[in-house]
Amino acid sequence: MYESSVSELTGQQKAAILLIAMGPEYSAKLFKHLDDDDIEKLTLEIASQQQVTQEQKQTVISEFYQLIMAKSYISHGGLDYAQKVLEKALGTDKAATIINRLTASLQVRPFDFLRKTDPSQLLNFIQNEHPQTIAMILAYLNPEQSASVLAALPAESQADVAKRVAVMDRTSPDVLREVERVLEKKLSTMSSQDFTDAGGIQVVVEMLNRVDRGTERSILDNLEVENPELTEEIKRLMFVFEDLVMLDDRSLQLVLREVESKDLSLAMKGTSDEVAAKIYKNMSKRAATSLKEELEYMGPVRIRDVEESQQKVVNIIRKLEEKGDIVVSRGKGDEMIV
What we know:
Elements: H1 11-22, H2 24-31, H3 36-47, H4 54-90, H5 92-106, H6 119-126, H7 131-140, H8 143-152, H9 155-167, E1 170-171, H10 173-183, E2 196-197, H11 201-208, H12 213-226, H13 228-238, H14 249-258, H15 261-267, H16 273-281, H17 285-297, H18 303-323
Antiparallel strand pairs: 1-2
Helix pairs in contact: 1-3, 1-4, 4-5, 6-8, 7-9, 8-11, 9-11, 9-12, 11-13, 12-13, 14-18, 15-18
InterPro entries: Flg_Motor_Flig, Flg_Motor_Flig_C, FliG_a-hlx, FliG_M, FliG_N
Subcellular location: Bacterial flagellum basal body; Cell membrane
GO biological process, one term: bacterial-type flagellum-dependent cell motility
């Protein structure tokens, strides 16, 4: 039995008391969502309890409920909104304690409130900002929102903003707070307590994969003039081998004609059933049978060799797409004209 008050217990001890209060049936369901290490620690903690008072159970359950509600308030209206609601319900000190505990564990991302803003409204709000400010905001939004805003920016700004997102690494919390302070009068604000990672090439790739083809070409063409190496890396990541399932049958057949059989068999080593089925479907029965036999008798291969062969296939797809022989569906602007 704990002789200390509930406020002095560790989080692990409180979790054990909560599970005891929930009973074995519901605790078992919760265990299904934990990893083995956490299950082991909690099991040992539960086993060490000789007696848990009803008062301890009620206090822990109440604290758990307050944390869950606070997290819900944050997701709906941000930290400022959550703190105001909690202050009215629990008082200033209690609200501050809960908010501090949540922000330390949730790692709330800057500009989280902007994710609830319509892209068209967001565009009107930030389009006159400095390109670096726009890039910082887009880097923290979800890819769908970022893509919508990027596509709607003036053509001369798109490549500049995309480049700034791609080369962005870590942003000082002071800079983030200053940008959020500027936006404070119109929208809710929140701040970050730590250095946070945002931006990078993968963010640009996800954005470009969601804009229309015309916007994508314009950005990449302008970016290639200024930074060819960065542009090549972005292009390499925009389409991976497994994405060939998105090609229509005619396009895939054109691709397969260009691929050497050795590269194709290596590229398919360990690939998904969906990708294999798509490839076999677009080959003659004789060629498909031959490929299956080759894969069956192929011994262990180096992952690097597989990746190189897959990249050769991707390069062929890119070459045919640039020539206009095939169409790779990306974004909203790729509808076919019949």
